[in-house]
Fold these 2 entries.
Entry 1:
Amino acid sequence: MLRRSRSWSQEHLAERAGVGSSTVSHIEIGSVRPSLEILQKLAGALRVPLWRLITDDRMSHDERTWDAASRELAEKVRGLDAEDMRALSYLAARLQQATGGAGSLRAAETRGARWRGSTRKKRAAKRRT
């Protein structure tokens, strides 16, 4: 459970989320169905996306790695001014564009090198004929 993994008490989570501690208790034991508003407050207090509260608690290795990396990045960009955030957003979009869904710039470069190599081979073969 997310609350326990942080060693938080129900009272601490409730205080951070602005809800009653009995609400947190009832949600955890399954005796109530929380409203979307309550779930959003809890997700905000836990600093996790809403979907983490409504899906299986177990995370894959990739999810844990991504989650840790996204928290680290969020900490680094906290406090940047609007112009810096626009620049960072632009760079992120360019990186996504450059990788073409390859997952990393290195993978995209490797794929690109293979593509360029195969194109060169085709051109050389055409010249020989």
Entry 2:
Amino acid sequence: MTGRTGEASIDAQVGERLRAARLRVVLTQGDLAQALGVDRSTVAKWESGERAMTAVALTRAADVLGIPPAALLEEQRRSAQHQAVQLLTQTLEQHPDLLPPMLAALERLLDQPSPRSS
């Protein structure tokens, strides 16, 4: 049963990303449905997580929305990473003198073996 809950959660997350991507390109559910050759209710069910998208539907939707299919599958952590990159960029714009020591620190981190590879 827990597997079903996890699957439903993944479907809901994909649906949320689908909806956000659709709204970013200013398409209605009907517009996306027409482009994909499905009913509007199907798009609504995908977005609500009530129905899982097939790999083919996900790939076609991503193409219509102008995003890579992985964007619909990525975890929420991406937004946290994006915020971290934005903060780092802003900091470096305000303090360009920090760039050399930051690059040196990143090089040291990249030279270390990954904890996962041990």
